[in-house]
Amino acid sequence: MKNAKRLFSRARRGHTRYSRCAFTLIELLVVIAIIAILAAMLLPSLSKARQKAAQAACTSNLKQLGLGMQMYLDDNGSIFPACASRSIYGFHTEDWIYWRVAPGYPSVQQSPITLGLGRINTNMFRCPMDRDDSERISQTGLVGSDPGPYLYSYTIPSHGLTAAGESAGLTSIVDGQGLHPYKISSVQGPAHKILCEEEQTSYNRNESWDGQGTIINDGRMVVRGNPPYYDGDSITIRHNQKGNACFVDGHAESLRALPYTRSDSWQLADPTGQYWYYLDHNNAP
After folding, report:
1. Cβ(213)–Cβ(266) under 8 Å?
2. What are 150-194's pLDDT values in tens digits?
3. On the CB side of 43, how many CA atoms lie within 13 Å of its CA?
4. 4 belongs to a structural domain
5. Alpha-carbon distance 172 to 102, whole Å?
6. In this structure, how many other beta carbons lie within 10 angstroms of the beta carbon of residue 135?
7. Residue 248 lies in a domain
8. Whose CA is closest to 65, among 248, 239, 264?
9. Residue 270 CA from chain centroid, whole number
10. Contact 55, 238 (CB under 8 A)
11. Is residue 249 a contact partner of residue 190, using CB atoms and an 8 Å limit?
12. 211 near 121, Cβ under 8 Å?
C-alpha cells in the first residue's frame, strides 16, 4: 500500500513538472506573432543588403572589364576593339566581346578584352540583378540561334562611321572595307566618357526609366532620337533607379536617369563625337 502511494505521488509530481513546461495555445500564438513581426521588420533590410551586394558585384565586373580594356589597348597600339554589333557590322574577331552562343563562334571567355585577365568566369559579363531574359529572347530569338539573344549585361558606346569613313568612337569599326580604328588618344575627357555600361533588358518599371529605347541586343550601345522622343539604347535603372558604368579613366560609378531633354543627361551625345557620354555638362573638359 505504501509503495502504491509513493508511485502515485511521483506520478503527480511528474505531471506537475510537465504541465509547468508546456505552452498553452495562446502562448504559442503570441510567439508565432512575434516571430512574424520580427521577420517583417528584417526582410526589407535583408533585401536591401542583397541588392547592395549585387550592385557592388556589378561595379566590380565593370572595373574588371575596364582593366581588361586597358590591357588590350596596351597590347594593340592603343586601338580600341570593334563594337560587337548584331547585324549592322556583324561578327568580327576584333570585337570586344564574343557574345554569340550559336555553334561555330568562339566562347565569351575568349573575348579579346579578357586575354590579359587570365582565367575568367562568364559571370563577369553579367550583372547579378540582370535576371530576366524573356524580353530579349522574345525580340531576338531563342538561345543557340544565330545570332540569337545577347545574354550579357554590358555594352560599349559606339557612334559608327563618320561621313569621311572614320570611326567616331568609342570602339573601332570593322566592315567590308576593313578596320576603321579608334585610338585612345582621340578620347577627350576620359573621366567623363563612359567606356562600358549596363543596358535595360525590359520596359519594366524597375528596369527602364521611361519605357522608351531598345532592349539590349548586342555589345554595342547606340544613342539616337530627337528630344523628347528616344529610340536608342538606354542604361538600366535596376540599382535603386540607377545604372552602373565604367569610365575611360578606369573609375566606376552609378548613374541616375535624367530627362532626355536636359543638357547634362547621359543620353545626350556631343555632336562633335568627342565626349560621347558625360555626367556633368558644365564640367566636361
Report:
1. no
2. 999 999 999 889 899 999 888 999 999 999 999 999 988 788 888
3. 6
4. no
5. 24
6. 18
7. yes
8. 248
9. 24
10. no
11. yes
12. no
